[in-house]
Design a protein that fits this description.
The complex is a heterodimer of chains A (374) and B (387). By secondary structure, chain A is mainly alpha-helical. Chain A has 17 helices and five strands. Chain A starts with a helix and ends with a helix. In chain B, 64% of the residues lie in helices and 8% in strands. Classes of the chains: A mainly alpha (374), B mainly alpha (387). At the A-B interface, α7, α13, α15 and α16 of A face α7, α13 and α15 of B.
């Protein structure tokens, strides 16, 4: 138990912050369920329709809807840890990856196509691979600016933030004559929503797969150690023989892969790929997930699990607000207040207060505790 | 003494320029170049006076936003809530104009002005307190602040837009708020049948909004350079720990910089209403925070803090505005060319700044081995991090 508690507190607040945030939200929902008498939030049912039966319920829907964001948060954590800054172009690069995904699935040049149907298997696989390659290329552009030209990550990625969607629109428009396209095909449906016969939505499997992949990479290679070293003190890492440029570029490569997978999952789930809206504003949500996950935004030690939990916390927050009947125009304001509250509670000053209070309590009860020992 | 310190009097003038001054001068030069290109190569823009005033009029609120951001960025922080504050200010002022019942136009004007700056200042103070006294990352707090501002604007408007009645005295007054300068304009002749029939004076129109923007730039420049507060901001941006040891109240200065930044964003919202009419809409100010950051960066402000100049931010905003005019009039119809051009321009600037700074600092560039450049010798240039 002690080792577990140590692990919980280790790192930058460890996993304490996202777990506490998630715990508070779930507790709040529990109280609401008890008060209103309806357990609809915590119900997990099996909904059956002609395509088969799937698990459904608020909890499942939260995990399902946060899948793409969780994958994105994984990549963002790595880049934040290695480079000490944030990549705000992930939405735009996601749009580019989505555009290439769609283009590759319909290789013939066509004008004014509005819906993509009847795609062949090899084209889908090709589409995913090309999307990954495209995202990695653009992420490497960002990586080159950050690692070789030593530009601040937020500034370097501001470039693609401004013109990435235009690039995506240019490619999609050139090939298919449209800026947005509907995806209506059984294979894509299986990728984004549910494989017929399997009760759990597919994106949840994708998250588990990506998580396992990255966990394997961390277990078999030194990437975690090198990334943290470069993030904490680049000069010291360099003097120890680590190549900071290579580590930073590698983190951007991983981010590129995560962005592409996230974009493909998002497009498949939504059923539409629009370059204007694809992953619009997701860079901010991803950075929020990283911050809620207890990671330092200035680089250094990181906990991937924290970021994933952060992504689920954001989704839980949104779901809770919706189920409380908050109107969609007020949602942003409430979300902002809760995020400020979470960050304030996790801030070093407030944590210092807790430590002081804790110490005071221990001192006050010391005599009582010592009497018990006797 | 002379054995240890190089004799600065003998150094060339170029090497005594600080980094900040050099970057500002570069941005000014690039602006002059771009302006010359615009005037000389595009037919509709060939009258420099009118082009200059048009670009200035259309980007005056961005100038104020860039000043707001420069103040905060020089202190080492960042404020991405400025666009949201503009939206909230416009919405609140529109609602106030609709429901206040004040008839006297002058009183209404000053009341709206005070409301705009007040809302911005309160927002800035709230964020400043969280960032400075609770030591939370500025990026997250101002990001949440942006969501909060837009959310509050939505709540105020009940989800839609607020339109101010056109008969309102304020709107009428705003419509006439401009100065016509004939000296910068030109005269157009109406020719009928080969003879000059009439001569029209086409003056350059300078809106009061632009005058406000220029006044703000001058005031903030003076504040940053000649007041204790301004000097303190540079100090905490350069090295917060050294500043503490020198007796600067770092927390109070940081709080004040966010307060000032918030007030300026409120003012920018007011100026935005002067330009576009008094109405509140949910899409107001979307993405303007990134434009403002880009303008500051182009103008020579470093994100890491301690280096920056509002004059540079002014030039940065004008560069982006001129670029938009060039693209708009040069026949590239697609909307996405403008964004791409802004992005490319920012990219060129950022890379160029990084190259210049590293060449000045060490005399050679720290590029990977496969990209060799000839080594330059610099005989002991002064420390580039000194203002």
């Amino acid at each position: 138990m002690n080792a577990f508690m140590k692990k919980l507190k280790g790192g930058v607040g460890g996993l304490a912050m996202p777990l506490v945030a998630l715990g508070v939200l779930l507790l709040f929902n529990l109280i609401r369920c008890v008060v209103t008498g309806s357990w609809s939030f915590y119900e997990i049912t099996i909904a059956t329709d002609e395509k088969g039966s799937i698990l459904s319920g608020s909890l499942i829907s939260i995990i399902y809807s946060a899948s793409a964001l969780a994958i994105l948060a994984m990549g963002m954590t790595l880049v934040t840890a290695a480079c000490g800054g944030q990549d705000i172009s992930v939405g735009a690069v996601g749009a580019i990856a989505g555009a290439f995904f769609v283009i590759m699935m319909h290789p013939q040049h066509e004008v004014q196509m509005s819906t993509l149907t009847s795609v062949a298997w090899p084209n889908v696989i090709l589409g995913v691979l090309v999307a990954i390659v495209a995202a990695v290329v653009f992420s490497l552009f960002n990586g080159m600016l950050v690692a070789c030209f030593k530009i601040q990550p937020m500034i370097a990625t501001l470039i693609l933030f401004s013109c990435g969607r235009s690039i995506a629109y240019y490619f999609l428009n050139n090939h298919l004559g449209v800026g947005s396209i509907k995806l209506d095909d059984p294979i894509i449906f299986a990728m984004g929503k549910v494989i017929p016969g399997v009760p759990i939505p597919t994106p949840i499997f994708v998250v588990i797969l990506m998580g396992l992949l990255i966990w394997l990479i961390f277990k078999r290679t030194n990437l975690r150690l090198y990334t943290q070293a470069v993030g904490i003190n680049q000069k010291a890492a360099q003097l120890n023989g680590i190549n900071p440029v290579a580590v930073k570029l590698l983190s951007f490569v991983v981010l590129g892969v995560c962005v592409a997978v996230s974009s493909v999952v998002q497009a498949s789930t939504l059923g539409t790929m629009a370059t204007i809206n694809q992953m619009d504003g997701w860079e901010m949500d991803a950075i929020l997930a990283v911050a809620i996950g207890g990671n330092a935004l200035g680089g250094g030690k990181f906990r991937l699990g924290g970021s994933i939990l952060g992504a689920y916390t954001i989704a839980t927050l949104t779901k809770t607000l919706y189920s409380m009947g908050v109107t969609s125009e007020s949602i942003q304001a409430y979300k902002a207040i809760v995020i400020i509250a979470i960050m304030a509670a996790g801030s070093p000053v407030v944590r210092g207060w807790f430590v002081t209070v804790n110490n005071k309590i221990r001192t006050l009860t010391k005599s009582a505790r010592m009497k018990e020992v006797d | 003494m002379t054995a240890i310190q190089p004799d600065l009097r003998k150094k060339k003038r170029f090497e005594r320029l600080t980094d900040a001054q050099l970057l500002t001068i570069i941005s000014g030069v690039i602006f002059a170049l771009m302006f010359a290109i615009a005037v000389l190569s595009i037919e509709e823009l060939k009258r420099p006076g009118i082009t200059f005033t048009t670009v200035l009029n259309s980007s005056c609120y961005l100038i104020i936003l860039a000043c707001a951001l420069t103040v905060v960025m020089v202190g080492g922080g960042i404020n991405i809530s400025v666009g949201g504050v503009i939206c909230l200010t416009c919405m609140a002022c529109a609602k106030f104009l609709n429901e206040s019942g004040i008839e006297d136009p002058t009183l209404l004007l000053w009341a709206t002005f005070a409301l705009a700056i007040g809302i911005g200042a309160v927002f800035g103070a709230f964020q400043g307190a969280l960032i400075s006294y609770l030591e939370i990352q500025p990026f997250i707090i101002t990001l949440a602040g942006m969501f909060l501002a837009r959310g509050l604007a939505m709540i105020l408007s009940g989800g839609g837009n607020i339109k101010v009645d056109d008969a309102n005295a304020f709107t009428k007054w705003m419509g006439d708020a401009e100065i016509k300068i004939q000296a910068l304009g030109y005269q157009r002749e109406k020719i009928r049948g080969g003879k000059v029939v009439a001569v029209f004076d086409v003056p350059a129109v300078l809106k009061w909004a632009s005058i406000i923007a220029i006044v703000v730039v001058i005031v903030i420049y003076l504040v940053m350079r000649y007041t204790k507060f301004g000097r303190n901001i540079y100090a905490i941006g350069g090295n917060a720990q050294s500043a503490t040891m020198l007796g600067v109240n770092v927390k109070l200065t940081r709080f004040n910089s966010y307060l000032l930044s918030g007030a300026l964003s409120g003012l920018a919202g007011f100026v935005f209403m002067m330009l576009n009419g008094a109405k509140g809409s949910s899409g107001t100010g979307l993405r303007t925070e990134m434009d403002a950051i880009a303008s500051s960066i182009i103008g020579g402000t470093l994100l890491s803090g301690g280096v920056g100049n509002v004059i540079g931010s002014f030039f940065g905003t004008m560069i982006l505005g001129t670029l938009q005019s060039i693209i708009g009039f040069s026949g590239l119809q697609e909307a996405y060319w403008q964004q791409m051009a802004s992005g490319v321009m920012l990219g060129i600037f950022v890379v160029m700044q990084s190259i210049i700074l590293s060449v000045r600092g060490k005399g050679k560039m720290s590029l990977p081995k496969w990209l060799h450049l000839s080594k330059k010798k610099s005989g002991g240039a002064p420390d580039p991090s000194v203002i």
